[in-house]
Design brief:
Radius of gyration: 24 Å
Helix content: over 70%
Number of strands: 0
Number of helices: 4
Length: 107
């Protein structure tokens, strides 16, 4: 039963991660646009060009804000990673236990 619930949890997390993949991409694109426009805003001297970069930056921020719910997908991917690491450690421990039992039997 415990293994069934574990597999069910993994499947749910994979679904959440894949469902929010588009939001993660839009969040990343929006943050890149906002960062680039901020860097260009700092470097320019013309008032008109600064206004243009502010408009572009606000557009990038609005794109990034629309992708904020995808943070749940990022959290699900991180949780999947830690579950996989734990699974690998348990698998490794089981091998050592079997080796110990085999060595004990040979003695």
């Amino acid at each position: 039963m415990k293994k069934f619930l574990f597999i069910l949890l993994v499947l749910i997390l994979i679904g959440v991660t894949l469902a929010s993949l588009g939001g993660v991409i839009s969040l990343a694109i929006g943050l890149v646009i906002a960062y680039y426009s901020f860097r260009r805003f700092i470097r320019t001297d013309s008032l008109f060009v600064k206004i243009v970069w502010v408009i572009i930056g606000l557009t990038g921020l609005s794109i990034a804000i629309s992708g904020i719910p995808s943070v749940f997908g990022i959290a699900a991917a991180i949780l999947l990673y830690y579950l996989y690491q734990d699974y690998q450690e348990r698998k490794h421990c089981v091998k050592h236990d079997k080796e110990f039992e085999d060595n004990w039997k040979t003695l």
